[in-house]
Specification:
Elements lengths: L1 H31 L5 E4 L2 H11 L4 E4 L14 H6 L5 E4 L4 H10 L6 E4 L9 H5 L17 H18 L4 H28 L3 E4 L5 H6 L3 E4 L9 H13 L4 E5 L5 H9 L3 E5 L6 H12 L3
Parallel strand pairs: 1-2, 1-3, 3-4, 5-6, 7-8
Length: 295
Amino acid sequence: MKSRQKVFIVITAIILGTFLTWYLQVYKNRTTTPPKKSLIASIPPVKYIVYQIVGDDFNITTLLSEGMSPETYEPTPKEIIATSDAQMIFTTGLLDFENTIVNKIHDTSNAIIADLSAGIKLIDGNDSHKDNVLHNHGTDPHIWTSFDCLQVMAKNAYDNIKALYPDSSKYYNNYMQLVDNLKDADKYVREKITQSGINYILIYHPALTYYARDYNIRQIALENEGKEPTADRMKSIIEQARNDSTKTVLYQKQLNESVVTTIAKDINAEPVAFDPLEEDAVQNLLWVTDIITRQ
């Protein structure tokens, strides 16, 4: 009997010892593993680009939340303070709220500001009016709606990441995979638009300016200088859309759809809401292409 008790005690001690060793190791790992470093993206499509390159190595947050409009968004003091812990802040360099944050954290943060628009041929509001590619004023900021621009943005993002972490070959491989995906998507869109024969996009707010430039099509915006279309403009657009048998009128989810619904009804077309700020910029543009080229 005593022999059995000794064996039991020994086995119990071994089990407890093994468990204790395992627990201490797990606890040690939890306490010694540093938290992920932080990166900030100004808008969801920018976050998409950054994530494709760095993956889960960083905690990536977005300043502009889903459903918010960059035209009306104003960062709170709390949000501005939160940027001080970031390693890098990725922006388009073209949105007012981005500039507000950059100016306010200039002396309080060590975060590197990565302007992803560098090297992109921007579309000026005055020039775009000549081609029915309308915008309220100044430079059109929607560079993330173009695969050509997205490739430049990806390079700018990678170059900034590489400068901060030059030893990570993984990021280069991820970047090259992203570039390949963007090129494949661009080829798909180019073929779809060529096959469809469409020569313009009918849209409420001109959010596809750079997309239209990429594929040599026009963007006819209902909105004129930030205002709803006049009766004469409505009449002209409706007549043209009827003649061309236009099937789709696009509008942003964040905007009022009443005007779009009226015009769509008059031309027997479907009003389709889309979000140009959707995080997955690639799938979003592929979806838009399928919508506007459908027969």
